[in-house]
Amino acid sequence: MFDWLPYNTQVVLVGVTLLGVCSGVIGCFAVLGRRALVGDALSHATLPGVGIAYLLAGGKHFAFMLLGGFVSGLLGIGVLSILKRFTRIREDAAIAIVLSTFYGGGIVIATVIQAQASGGQAGWDTFIFGQSVGMIWDDAQWIMALGLVTLVIVALLFKEFKLVAFDPAFAHVQGWPARAIDFTMMLLLLVAVVTGLPAVGVLLMAAMLIIPASAARLWTYRLSRMLFLAAAIGAGSGIAGALLSSSVALPLGPCIILFAALFFLTSLMFAPERGLLARAFQRRRDRIALLADLRAGKEPI
Length: 301
Known about the structure:
The protein is an all-alpha fold. It has 13 helices and no strands. It has helices at 7-32, 36-57, 62-86, 91-114, 126-129, 137-156, 158-166, 168-173, 178-200, 205-217, 223-248, 252-270, 276-295.
């Protein structure tokens, strides 16, 4: 399908397409469960682990750095859970604490990497800002494997995720292991974040989780349709961003996010019922109907 493109661009397209699908799907549960900022905190929490793994490996080792990011993000989930459960700190404050602390630690480690005498920081910036240059087929395979695992788990636990995302208190009362299900969703969010680090980067990965899901939310009231639309928007953003990045030599992550934002703005304007234009037309119709009732001598309801 993309045989006319350079081999490296084809590799990137494969990776970011499935990344967009995975991020869009799991991002829907974050949006519906009001966990949008949690994705941002997790993306920043992975930075220290990526840096430590980079130092231990002595350079860019894709799988090892993803593992480091996962462990660091898991620690961030643990700290966030402890702050929420055993202190009186509100969730937004706990998220801010985790985000800023882990990101600060990551910046310190980044400074150590940049100050190395060998200057061996090649590949490090990839995990901060995202980059298409240098992604090889093995990297794309890791992205595909992690993305497919995430999608399979979502398919298997769809009913449970749906229940906990909409009403965790009701799920707990009904005897469902709401905390375990919620923790599983958090883990999948973390897996999605770690998967997208080399393509989109730490700073922008949260946007990849939230923007496609938020755009899809404007088009439908059904969760199944929302998942499909979010996956399509995520994949479309990835493909468009990769093509733009490869054609004009721009960073991959920002290109993907800009296209995702374009999809969101389009949805915000033109989505039926929830779009700004649709709501403006509905207000105009209501005003006309009200004036007609007043002229006819009817009392407004």
